[in-house]
Every structure is written in structure tokens, then in C-alpha cells.
Write a structure and sequence with these properties.
The complex is a heterodimer of chains A (about 90) and B (about 475).
Chain A lengths: L2 H10 L6 H18 L34 H6 L4 E2 L2 E2 L7
Antiparallel strand pairs in A: 1-2
Helix pairs in contact in A: 1-2
Chain B lengths: L5 H9 L5 H19 L2 E4 L1 H16 L10 E5 L26 H8 L3 E6 L33 H8 L5 E6 L5 H7 L2 E4 L19 E6 L2 H11 L29 E5 L9 H16 L3 E5 L7 H16 L18 H12 L2 H14 L5 H22 L4 E5 L15 H5 L6 H6 L3 E9 L2 E9 L4 H14 L12
Parallel strand pairs in B: 2-3, 7-8, 7-9
Antiparallel strand pairs in B: 1-3, 4-6, 5-6, 5-10, 9-11, 10-11
Classes of the chains: A mainly alpha (about 90), B alpha/beta (about 475).
């Protein structure tokens, strides 16, 4: 992985990695990928991926309102909210 | 007062030796006086604590029979607390005051426990040294030039420094057991699904599990009883009967079958730690257990599998921090993309960014099968190793960590060497099993922890054997010279 790969990855992750640190970041990510590449030696033919330790399924519930609406409390901690809406910079001109 | 255990404090409250307000004030004074040296708290909630203590005193006067009523404790700053800043050790959440409580926090409040505040931690629980906290490193009470371990380093250090009788913590790859080991306290990581994750800020959702850190197994049992609950709000929480942990403590250990995996005593383990662990296992043998050599052949793949799965899940979980609804927002964003990127880049520290990048890579098109899917398959092999072992033995013993507490700054430059510190702990999380770390000796004046892993839902068994061991030994009663 080189600096241009890091730039692409950072964009996917919505992070800014500045040019001065990109080489250092690439080095450390390469180190980690070296570590995890050990997985490729494991024989996993016929083994199903395990997402939950006890292979439990997620519970479903009825589509009913169970909590009271506390929108105002949640929006009170937002960086910018107005009339029940979260504000962001203009998206469409 | 601060030398007493929860059980003893509960008796003191009922005997009116002291009130909860007096007890709480005593701990608050200690925190104010001693914590500047350890940095184990991010937020101390003196006013709220004293008003909770006052309410507890009223409940005690009415004859409340909850052991935790009026007992001071602390929450890792990963558990949301209504009206109290919950930072997760990150600049991203430095301004975050949740409008609700985590289920775990509600459980303690209902029982009348008194929260002294929120303990320091590695940023978003990512780290094994507690050096990645936005609020600065936590220092180990046994030697303040050394790390307390992580990510629940604040909880472990606060208990070790007798600044709180117990604290909540979380464990994704060893974050309860490893700091417990390095600080000489007892820490229990429960079965995945035992403790509600609702309101516990998510790092790796299929691995994260809350649990207690306390000075001994008896207190961990009391804490665990409060933490364990079925919760409909957490879709991964499991509806399984909850044992009476305190009632199980006194069961004799005759016939207990202990497995000792050869993989836990290989290269990388400090020789003095190894002999301390062997001596502890011998002690269990003297108490009636039988010892059997076993093998966990895929253990070496646990750290590689963990460092795919945990970053992958973290990259997904942390995508919610976008500067829009809560948390850090950059100044003067030029457009929406700039808002996302700068808010996240300013809010997250280096280790968190590194893991988000690794996770994003592992989940990106073309790499998913080679990394994430492969790691999930290896995860099943690791679980199968444990299941094979539990056909022959009841519990598995070995070291919690490769060494005693290491010096601050010695590992944080090289992520891979820090990740390899988790070699004995991550497999337990991948398999979702319960594990405990118990103080079992000292090397050069620094504590060593024995790790014990049991089959699913056997928290009671772990607490039982830890308690029996603590009846025969006094490692858990020793405290660092400066904290007494």
C-alpha cells in the first residue's frame, strides 16, 4: 500500500490524511496488513464464517412505537439544529 | 474506609459505622488528592454523587437490602450517563452529554449505587496501554512510569489506587483482563450477550462486552449481579438464566479440571511471569483441581483475525461520527464533504484513524473475502478449539499478559508490537467466552494476573474459583505503597 492508496482509502473513510504523514500512515498500515496476512495460511475450506459467537440470530420485534419521542433533547446537543432539522452546509445550489 | 471491600462497606453502612454521604465524600477527597498522579478519572461528579449518596442513606434507613445501596463506584467513560459528559476518551465526544443512561448505568442506579464519575480509557477503547486517551495517559499506581494497561486502564488504576471500590469496564480484545492484570485487581469479562450493550458506545459490536473490575472476586460477583440483565434494547443481548453469583462463591474446587494450553507458554512470555502463573496453577491443584495439558492450535491466528474483525466493525460503527448530529464539528465547513472530513480528522486520534483505515480496507470491494470473510472463518476455528478443549476440561488457565506493566511510551510507536500484547486475550472475545484475570503474584514488585477462561455462561464458575483462590492467597489484598 502506498501513499496514493492511503489517499483513496482516507477518502472512503471520510478522513483527511495530510501529505506529510501519509508515508508514515502507509508504513503502519502495511505493518498491520503483514500481521493479518497470516490468516491466508489457515485452511478454512468448508468452514462457515462466524458473525455471532453463539450463532444467534438477531431478534425481531413488532414495528410499534416503544419509546417516547425525545427529539428536542437529542437536537439540543447537535452542533446546529433549527425547527427540528439538523443543519449542514448547502448541498444543492 | 477505602481499604474495605464492597461487602464490608455494605455492612458498615448498615451498622451505621459511616453513612453513604460520609463514605462518598471520603472517596471524592481521595480522588481530588491522589488522582492527579494517576489521571484515572476524566470526569468526577461530586455533586451528583453526594445527592445519590443522600438518597441512598434514606433508602438504607428504610431497610433497603441491596448490597450496592450507598456504595460508591465509577463507570468507564464509554457508558452513557444522562446529563454527564461521556467522552469515550475522544476529542470527538469531548462535548457530548448524553440525554439517556446506558442500561448498565440504569441497573446500578436502580440498586442505589453511587457513581463517583467516569474513568479514563483509550480513545474509543482502542489500545492496550491507555495512552491513546484524548485526556492523557493513565499511570499505573504500582509505578507511575508504567502503563496501567488498556483500554479500561482508568477503571483498573482507580480500583488499584483505592479511589473507588469497583468500576465498570468493557472488554473487546482484553480491555478488562489486561489492565486488571497490570494493576493487580480482579476483572471479569462475561459471555458475549450477558451484559447489555445499550448505551455502551460501540467499538466492535460482535466482540464488545461490559464487565466489572474490583479488588476481589467477591466484589466482582456483586458488581456482575448488577450488570447482568436481559435487555430488549440490545438485539445481541441473550435471554439466558442469570446465576446467583455470590451464592456460588463458596463451592469447593474438588474435581475441577483445569486445562493448560501449551500455546500460552511459548515465545514472547516473560520467564518470571511464566513461573508465577505455573505456581498459581499448582495452588489450584493443591486445592483439589486436576491439571491437564491441552492445545489451542489456532491461538496464533487470534490476533490476526481480531485485527481484521475489530477494525472492520469499528470503521462501520464510527461512521456515525460525522459532525452533524452530535460530537465535534469543525469550524466553517466549506461544504458537506469538508464538514465530514475535517470533523472526523480533528475529532479522532491517530490509533482510531489507523483502525478505521484498516477496517475500511478490509471491507472494501475486492478485499472483503480475503480479509473479513476469511477472519470470520478463522474465528470459527478458534471457537472450535475451545469447544474441543471444554470436552476434556472445565476451565483453561494461563497468563493474562506477556509481562508485567511496561513503561509509558515503550509500545505506542509500533502498533503491531502493541497488538501482539493481546495474544492471550483476543481469542476469548472471538469465541465470545467469559474470562477473568486474578492477581496471582508479583515480579519485581509489579502485579501478575492469572487468566481463566470458562465455557459459555459460566461466570459463576470463574468467580467461584477466583474466590476460593483468594481465600488461600493474599495477592489481591496488596496495594501499591503510595495508595494505602
Amino acid at each position: 500500500m502506498d501513499q496514493s492508496d492511503i489517499a483513496k482509502l482516507a477518502n472512503l473513510a471520510r478522513l483527511d490524511i495530510n501529505e506529510t504523514t501519509a508515508a508514515e500512515v502507509a508504513d503502519s498500515i502495511n505493518g498491520i496488513l503483514g500481521l493479518v496476512d497470516q490468516l491466508q495460511n489457515a485452511d478454512t475450506d468448508g468452514i462457515a464464517p462466524m458473525a455471532h459467537p453463539q450463532d444467534a440470530q438477531q431478534r425481531l420485534r413488532k414495528d410499534e412505537v416503544s419509546e417516547e419521542n425525545v427529539r428536542e433533547q437529542f437536537q439540543a446537543i447537535a452542533p446546529e439544529a433549527e425547527q427540528g432539522l439538523y443543519l449542514v452546509p448547502k448541498v444543492i445550489d | 474506609m477505602h481499604q474495605l471491600t464492597i461487602r464490608e462497606l455494605a455492612k458498615g453502612l448498615r451498622d451505621k459505622t459511616f453513612s453513604s454521604v460520609e463514605l462518598t465524600q471520603h472517596y471524592l477527597d481521595r480522588i481530588q488528592q491522589l488522582d492527579p498522579a494517576y489521571n484515572s478519572f476524566i470526569t468526577v461528579t461530586s455533586e451528583e454523587a453526594l445527592s445519590q449518596a443522600q438518597a441512598a442513606d434514606e433508602r438504607l434507613a428504610q431497610g433497603d437490602d441491596s448490597v450496592l445501596c450507598g456504595i460508591p463506584m465509577a463507570h468507564k467513560d464509554i457508558f452513557c450517563t444522562n446529563g454527564v459528559k461521556t467522552s469515550c476518551g475522544s476529542k470527538m465526544l469531548d462535548n457530548f452529554v448524553p440525554p439517556y443512561n446506558a442500561t448498565v448505568v440504569d441497573n446500578f442506579n436502580r440498586l442505589g449505587a453511587v457513581s463517583l464519575g467516569k474513568t479514563n480509557m483509550d480513545e474509543f477503547a482502542m489500545g492496550s496501554t491507555n495512552e491513546s486517551s484524548f485526556y492523557g495517559a493513565v499511570k499505573n499506581p504500582w509505578d507511575t512510569n508504567r502503563v496501567p494497561g488498556g483500554s479500561s486502564g482508568g477503571s483498573a488504576a482507580a480500583v488499584a489506587a483505592l479511589l473507588t471500590p469497583a468500576a465498570t469496564a468493557t472488554d473487546t480484545g482484553g480491555s478488562i483482563r489486561q489492565p486488571a492484570s497490570l494493576c493487580g485487581v480482579t476483572g471479569l469479562k462475561p459471555t458475549y450477550g450477558r451484559v447489555s450493550r445499550w448505551g455502551m458506545i460501540a467499538f466492535a459490536s460482535s466482540l464488545d462486552q461490559g464487565g466489572p473490575i474490583a479488588r476481589n472476586a467477591e466484589d466482582c460477583a456483586i458488581m456482575m449481579q448488577a450488570m447482568a440483565s436481559f435487555d430488549n434494547k440490545d438485539s445481541t443481548c441473550m435471554d439466558h438464566p442469570i446465576e446467583d453469583y455470590s451464592a456460588l462463591l463458596n463451592k469447593p474446587l474438588e474435581g475441577l479440571r483445569i486445562g493448560v494450553p501449551k500455546e500460552y507458554f511459548g515465545e514472547g512470555l516473560n520467564a518470571d511471569v511464566a513461573s508465577t502463573i505455573q505456581a498459581a496453577i499448582k495452588q489450584f491443584e493443591a486445592m483439589g483441581a486436576t491439571i491437564k495439558d491441552i492445545t489451542l492450535p489456532h491461538n496464533a491466528l487470534a490476533v490476526p483475525a481480531y485485527y481484521v474483525i475489530a477494525p472492520a466493525e469499528c470503521s462501520a460503527n464510527l461512521s456515525r461520527f460525522d459532525g452533524v448530529r452530535y460530537g465535534h464539528r469543525c469550524e466553517q465547513p466549506a461544504d458537506l464533504m469538508d464538514l465530514y472530513k475535517r470533523s472526523r480528522s480533528e475529532g479522532f486520534g491517530d490509533e482510531v484513524k489507523r483502525r478505521i483505515l484498516v477496517g475500511t480496507y478490509a471491507l472494501s470491494a475486492g478485499y472483503y473475502d480475503a480479509y473479513y470473510s476469511k477472519a470470520q472463518k478463522v474465528r470459527r476455528l478458534i471457537k472450535q478449539d475451545f469447544m474441543n478443549a471444554f470436552d476434556e476440561v472445565d476451565v483453561i488457565m494461563g497468563p493474562t499478559a506477556t509481562s508485567t506493566a511496561f513503561e509509558l511510551g515503550s509500545l505506542n510507536k509500533d502498533p503491531v508490537s502493541m497488538y501482539l500484547e493481546d495474544i492471550y486475550t483476543t481469542a476469548t472475545n472471538l469465541a465470545g467466552l467469559p474470562g477473568i484475570s486474578i492477581p496471582c503474584g508479583f515480579v519485581n514488585g509489579l502485579p501478575v494476573g492469572l487468566q481463566v477462561t470458562a465455557n459459555y455462561w459460566r461466570e459463576g464458575q470463574l468467580l467461584n474459583l477466583a474466590h476460593q483462590y483468594q481465600q488461600q492467597t493474599d495477592f489481591h489484598r496488596q496495594t501499591a505503597p503510595d495508595v494505602a
